[in-house]
Write a structure and sequence with these properties.
The structure is a homodimer of 67-residue chains. By secondary structure, chain A is mostly helical. Chain A has one domain: lambda repressor-like DNA-binding domains (434 Repressor (Amino-terminal Domain), Orthogonal Bundle). Helix content of chain A is 57%, strand content 6%. The first copy, chain A, has 5 helices and 2 strands; from the N terminus they run βαααααβ. Chain A has a two-stranded antiparallel sheet with strand order 1-2. The two termini of chain A are 15 Å apart. The model of chain A has no long low-confidence stretch (mean pLDDT 95). At the A-B interface, helix 4 of A face helix 4 of B. Chain A binds a DNA duplex (30 and 30 nucleotides) through helix 3.
DNA sequence: GTATAATGCAAAGCGTACTTGACAAATATT
DNA sequence: AATATTTGTCAAGTACGCTTTGCATTATAC
């Protein structure tokens, strides 16, 4: 799953640890999602998106889903 | 996590099994999400929402999340 | 009233999201 | 160059999303 997290985070000059703290998760979780190691859960996707003032659909790319 | 899935599904007169088939999952998964047994994954939340022509935020209620 | 469809629920099992701790490599700062 | 900050990754463990099977209950239809 591709996301715009890294570009949004860097635009605001935040470290992974700062973003993690802001959304209540760990640095490793942010790294894993940014690198594509796994897909965020729905609650975490919401927290990250709204932290940036965007909707989930604006931050996460679903074009790889069939249907 | 509250959702509008049941009301959207009934408005279209679909059974849980029909919705499940349409979004590529099982009837029990739809039941569990409707009843609040657990929260949908991000990909499934996307598939369900867009099956109804809505965004994730329009179908799922995130007001129970802290922050 | 009997059959059929639709739903709720439970148990066992699998894969994955997430945490914690720790280490190495890369980037920035001085 | 040396130091500090940031990031990638690995391993072990916990929790949860999801599947499959199966049974019981409620509603719809014949």
């Amino acid at each position: 799953m591709k996301t715009k997290i890294r570009e949004l985070r860097k635009a605001r000059k935040l470290s992974q640890e700062e973003l993690a703290g802001a959304v209540g998760t760990t640095r490793q979780t942010i790294t894993s999602i940014e690198v594509g190691k796994y897909t965020a859960s729905l609650p975490l996707a919401y927290k990250i998106s709204h932290y940036f003032g965007l909707t989930i659909e604006e931050v996460f790319d679903f074009s790889d889903l069939e249907d």
